Predict the 3D structure of the following.
Amino acid sequence: MPKSLRAPAAHLAAFLASLIMLLPVYLITINALKSSPEASSMSVDLPSELHFENFLIAIEKGKLIGSFLNSLLYATSATVLATLVSAMAAFVMSRHRTRLNRFFYLFLIMGIALPINFFTLTTMMQVTHLINTKIGVIILYAALQVPFSVFLIYGFVDTIPRELDEAAILDGCRPPQLFFLVILPLLKPVLVTAGILNFLNIWNDFMIPLYYLNSSANWPMTLAVYNFFGQYQSSWNLVSADILLTIIPVIIIYLLGQRFIIAGMTSGSVKG
Amino acid sequence: MKSHSPYPLYFVLAALALYVTFFIIPSLSGIAYSFTDWSSYSDEVEFIGLDNYRTILSPDENYLSFIGNTLLFTFWTIIIKTVFGLALALLLNEGVRRFVNGYRVLIYLPVILPTLVVALIFRSILDPAAGLLNSFLRGIGLDALALPWLIDPTIALYSVIGVDSWKGIGYIMVILLAGLQTIPKDLYEAAAIDGAGAWAKFRHITLPMLMPALMIVTVLNVLYGLRVFDIVYALTNGGPGYATEVLSTEIFKAFSKGQFGLGTAISSILFLILVVTGYLVIRVMERQTDRE
């Protein structure tokens, strides 16, 4: 291929790839605005007239406000809890590399690879009286995010100079003050990354509520959408509206935090 | 100083307690329960030795095909995601000089969408009669390729693999792109002076330098593929028949049916496959890296 054509050809290929990746979100957006018969084939054509009432119907019939608040509660609380306990653990394990702490670190990040045993976990949730409760789901989500969060934050702690710890201790800081007043603010970049990734993981999860939440009042958005789809399979305009409302928060967080997300996804895998 | 260490052990305890309570204890006790007839119908749990494992490994049952489907899914999604992910990473790293971040944001978009939502959208796109894919294929005259993607048992698993690959390519691309960006440019300049062509540069510089990133990508894909649940559950729920049934969807069915002993046995087999495959993949990749 002649050199002058190489860049346009590359742009064409990258543009086509981007288009294929964007297509489903486009489909959902335009079909959410169509009438039910018009949306039945989920075509790429633009709507002949705009049906904004689809969103109101989806919100009402799909009980989206309640499930939105549930998702927000689960994702926010579990993210804060997981990120905080992981940062505390990662800080001490990274700074104080005793044999015990190294063992704890490897033991914790092993969880990245382990499958969950849902049967015995059910028993554990029953014994701790957490099954079918909101607080139970929050604690469970936090526990499941710990291994990857520890892995992510552990690598970052090294970039904060130890001299800061020593200076703070000389100034009379106790360990909690050292961590919360000196270290935590400096961990901000990695905490944002871990926080966004944890939040999205929990927001998008479907498996934990499927196993452990049988009351629809506690359902997050994913499960509510799935249930809505079961009821309104023939009305793709309503299903599309319901799906669009579910993914809008995800897309907003993605666009605002994409640099942090990509930093988190690539950390450890490239620099070693 | 020792009594007042600035790095007290109790800082580790909260994370450890959550992890041990909800991860480790269930996993270990799960192995013990896999030798019992534990079910939701009876309060008594009796030791039945290897009976659950005999059931799973029996050729008269379907469980071996679920293991096979899981391995096929893992294998093909790795191949497709890595090939396309690498091609796109090379394209963004060397082909296009502008808008790299824009393309990357769009290509990565499916990764952050909820898997459930992706599955629902593709149920419409892959609809045999009205679906967008078949309408498109008929429109360009390829009627013969307009197949019943999720309904024909012989191709359903590959349709699921295709959808999952579509969702995951951006993730692989981003990791490989970051890997490509760490390769020093002067290596290529030196090779060009020596008269190396594009293929020789790729084979002798890009590929070996990218090995660590490729290794991570493969391990992540293996871990994901063996545990896959959402995409299969929401696209086909293991059907038609058992054509797309994987271990995690079967585990959920055992859970719903109250067959807890059998379910923990399947979970334990999944655990074992994860450990063995993970170990083998790392060994093979390490040997490959040594040879380069």
Notes: Chain A touches chain B through 95 residues (CB under 8 Å). The mean pLDDT of chain A is 87.
